# Entry
Amino acid sequence: MKFWQHVLNKLQDAQKVYVLTVIENFGSSPGRKGFKMLVAQDGFIFGSIGGGVMEFSLVAEAQQLLTTNPPTFIKKQIHKGSIKDGSGMICSGEQTVAFHYLDSKNSASIQQILTCLQNGQKGTLSLSPTSFSFSEERLANQFEYQIHSNDNWFFKEHIGFKETLYIVGGGHVGVAVSEVAVKLGFYVVVFDNRANLNTLENNTFAHQKMVVDYNCIHEYIPQRNTSYIAIMTNKYTDDKLVLSKLLKKNYNYIGVLGSKAKLKTMWTVLGNEGFSQEMLATVYAPIGLSIKSETPEEIAISIAAEIIQVKNMAKK
# Structure
């Protein structure tokens, strides 16, 4: 959201800008589809299209073009040293970057994107040699694109939150996980069953916060493969209750915070209640990658890393 706010600010200041977007990548390219960078007439730069000497060179090119009559075009970068279309990098792979020149006439489209993100809505950013627009079209995938030639191509990107992280438990770890997850682009919803909970009320990172009856937790979390759930209530019985309500549903990720001893007991009890070992094996527990984390912030990093791993593996 910060990226688009910076773009809008520059356009409202009557600045000429380039928005650089990676629209295709292969191999070990440092820039991935959807990576963006803002280059403004006054020298302001924000975002990244992969870094390194390649990014430095393309930014310098954009800055130079902004002093003339800036065109909209695409440019292939091959990361194999000194060759035609070479980026100067040697990491292998390649990427294609679209240079879109924007001015005050594009402010309305940028405002649409910001409004979409602020309201938790979804839409599509469409790029072509002659357009930079936003609509309410819904894409089945994150990106759709075709490149036939430098003058015949299009790129569409889903804008808005595709994945939602539901955190069940509004304590200190819940706050830390909320902060990290929002930075990673998740829509974050936090639940707790305690009214007037200080850490829940002061959680300024989550998009939604709700006090609910854990017996009804399944009614608040939609069954879909973009739903991720982190269970971290303040006691064992609530963890078990929440998990029992969600286990038979369809979610992309369910993790439970707790010691191995606590979770072993929980698994035994749930097994006695009729949950199969195969079903229990789908739960990520103890939640998070094993990095010897201790503080809420460290635990949040381990949880976020595991969720990223699950999310990105599902795309392959």
